[in-house]
Design a protein that fits this description.
This protein is an all-alpha fold. The chain contains 2 helices and no strands. This is IS110 family transposase.
Length: about 50
């Protein structure tokens, strides 16, 4: 999430806007884990 924050900050976004977007991303991941009843696997790979 640090890279996302820094990228959005460089775009000129406000701190609270960025933090809110990160919070939403985290909530969506938690909900998906609960909904699918699986453990979280961090296998994200950045697109080329």
């Amino acid at each position: 999430f640090r890279n996302y924050y820094e990228r959005k900050k460089a775009e000129g976004k406000h701190d609270l806007t960025i933090i809110n977007a990160i919070r939403n991303k985290m909530v969506l991941r938690v909900v998906a884990v609960i909904k699918n009843q699986r453990k979280y696997v961090n296998n994200y790979q950045k697109a080329a």
